[in-house]
Amino acid sequence: MCGIVGYAGRRPAAPLLLAGLQKLEYRGYDSAGIALLTPEGVRVVKTAGHDGVMAMEILAGQIDRLPAEATTGIGHTRWATHGRPTDNNAHPHLDTAGEFAVVHNGIIENYLPLRARLREAGCVFQSETDSETVVHLLAHYYRGDLAEALRRTLADISGSFALVGMCRHHPGQLVAARRNAPLIVGAGAEGDFFVASDIPAVLTETREVYVLEDGEMAVVSDGAVSFSDFAGTARAKTVMRVTWDAAAAEKGGYEHFMLKEIDEQPRALQDTLYGRVNRSGLVDLGIRAEFFAGVERVALVGCGTAYHAGLIGRELLEAWAQLPAETAIASEFRYRRPLLDEHTLVVLISQSGETADTLAALHEARKNGARVLVVTNVVGSTAAREADEVLFTWAGPEIAVASTKAYTTQLEVMVLLALYLATARGRLAAEYSAALLAELQALPAKITEILSRKEQLRRMAVPISRAGSAFFIGRGLDWAVALEGALKLKEISYIHAEAYAAGELKHGTLALVTADTPVLAVATQRALYDKTLSNVEEVKAREGRVLAVAASDNRELGDAADEVFWLPPVSDALAPLVTIVPLQLIAYYAAVLRGNHVDKPRNLAKTVTTE
Ligand code: AGP
Fold this sequence. Notes:
This protein is of the alpha/beta class.
């Protein structure tokens, strides 16, 4: 999740590139850079954020170091994946002679063998990134035709990419390509061209854009643009006129970041899984085995949504790895003097990696000699830096306060961690683990299918949006998902919502159920269908309205509930990863129907840095 902007035209490039990057900062912001073409070679400024000053701010202060007269250039704002957020790892990357420059979004999957090969050929690498291999390949294959060099480069790289390159010997030329990462070409006035990862980057300059498809290349040269496939066969493309306003465009045409982020979940899950299953079909966390040796118990700690992810992690760790595990709310953890020692693995879960309560728990764990594993979405965050080991969720920047894709990717990491430890401890049959990993790979498609049925969820949100209070019920893993569903509804719709273990409802809370109190039942756990069904019947007997999210084979619930959203087939253990999606959408639509500020709900902040 990084941002790209390129410009080739007659105007000074640097201010145009900077303005474009500033529009893309929401995509990633740990480092940023600009490179310009000059007759002597490529000139570049790039920086990570330092001492609390954002990278973009530093870049803006350095822009006057670049030649003001240069009219071709590329820029990038980065959200670190391969390689820490440092000045050297920031894009653009240059070849050894400083004649070529490239910016890249995505992941070059085979960068390690490529880097070894290029080093042998004499290339000098300046960064830890996968992206730098692309610019060295470009220089390596260059024989006077930049587009041809790119085609040969594309034949060598696997993975996902949106990339733009340029070369000292071709003033006014940009070459670009995409596979599984967005890229557009904006056609400005008088032969000005922009290449960007997102429309907002170009919107102040032009509304005429060409959207590249996967497998397409673009060459901007001499005030014209041409398109082809990777083999060089020309492609005709029609220009699209963008009618959204700038603010909407930052959200990629979505009304709210939250909805965009909900829709991004299939991709986020793919990215998080990527590279974590080895050739033998086993989980590879990229953490040395000794780190886990001698672990006798696990404490999963987090706040809000992250805590809810920990609840699922606990169940899976106990069930598969047969490791005693507890889940703790970070703000409670250190005050109750938890029993910690060197045999305890403390797993801190935090999207931002900056939550004060979670950091305090980290310090408590460290003080007591426990091993600290951090699960976070932000490379370079405090938690990531202070951890003994880190597992990143590759969800990309999450802007909406209500966490969605961070949660599902946290759940995926919980599954991977539990499978890894179960296998390492010899507690899980290899076939069972292989089947779960295969299913994990298939989940993005199942979520995509759920996302195609938003209309039903919007309808189900109507009675909820009119209620003053709602209950969520479920058993086992469904209860943990119900807690997260209720949190989503509370924080953005401002409707009082509480989640109960379904069997607990009759011990008091049932007194609150009336015809005006919707009850959302979650029912995916096969062994518990009948029990949950009885609890639904109890609600119906009090004239309560029951809306359900249920496994497709739980047909009896169809007769009992007022409306059911049926889930695609999924095993019990992985059900939470798909079950939460309809609940996120119900909360989203309820908030929209109530006219609330969905992305920035009242009284809340995305990152809570106070205890
Ligand atoms: C979730 O929708 C919330 N915004 C909130 O509960 C959040 O998960 C919590 O504050 C923890 O944040 P973190 O993951 O960045 O540590």
